[in-house]
Amino acid sequence: MTVHHFFVRKEAIQFPLAIIDGREHHHLQRVLRLKKGEKVRIFNEKGELFSGSVEKIEGDKTTVRLLSRLESENLKVAITAAPACLKTKMMDWLVQKMTELRVMKIAPLLTKRTVVRLEGEGLGKVARWRRLAIEAAKQVQSPFFPEIRPPLPLETFVVGRPEKKKYYLSERGGLLLRQVIQAELASGLESLESAIICAGPEGGWEKEEEELLQGHQFLPISLGPRIFRAETALFTVVSVFAHLWNG
After folding, report:
1. Helix, strand, coil content of the chain in percent (nearest 5)
2. How many domains does the chain divide into?
3. Strand arrangement of the beta sheet that strand 175-176 belongs to
4. DSSP conformation letters of 132-187
């Protein structure tokens, strides 16, 4: 029997009770039509996971009695994905897939060839992407969904990055992905805590943007001579690294 997952803000969890409201309450009451006593699972923005049962359903909220705290997934490496902003459908798909891969942060970039303009829409887009991420996490029963940052210009974003490993996808060359994986395995993964992977827009990086990335210690990765869509290229590389580091 399927146990449905619901997102609840951390401040709405006061053990042994949790309050489901807003969209999540509407989904529980109007779509799933759950009843008192039915089992559910609760997760919050910190990746905490609880089992519980529906105690009371009211007009604007559902009260859940928490039964136990469940063991969450162990993610050794916090991965940040930094894609150049793409068109709506592509970006929506990418947010969903990055969530499924347990990426911890998504940091959209504004580049010289970014075709999407976000003047006056940036925060609205972020709110939409966050909703999509929560839904994707629920679908794969993951307690994690990424923090999604407002879009930043590349030249602002690269300064002072704290990640231990920094990569970007390049059409102009760099180590092949398999060579990077071999190097990662040879160096050992025990001390790695964080990594970031950047991907350019549909038209690719400008030469000076790649120089900027390399000047801030980002290493180029190549997928070889084949041409990929921007979202496919990032999904491919993050999939491999997610399996290598957190699989």
Report:
1. 35, 25, 40
2. 2
3. 147-148, 105-106, 78-83, 194-199, 165-169, 219-222, 175-176
4. HHHHHHHHTT-S---EEPPPEEHHHHTTT---SEEEEE-SS--EEHHHHHHHHHHH
Domain of residue 115, CATH code: 3.40.1280.10
Per-residue pLDDT reduced to its tens digit, 43-52: 999 999 999 9
What ranges in the chain are assigned the alpha helix state H? 22-26, 88-100, 122-139, 154-157, 177-187, 207-215, 230-246
pLDDT in tens, 13-33: 999 999 999 999 999 999 999
Q: Is the pLDDT of residue 73 over 90?
A: no
Together in a domain, 50 and 93: no
Same domain, 238 and 135: yes
What pLDDT is stored for residue 65 in this prediction?
A: 98
The domain in which residue 236 lies consists of 78-246
Residues 127 and 242 in one domain: yes
Q: What is the largest CA-CA distance in the chain?
A: 60
Taking 60 as the threshold, does the pLDDT of residue 119 lie above it? Answer: no
Distance of CA 191 to the CA centre of its chain: 22
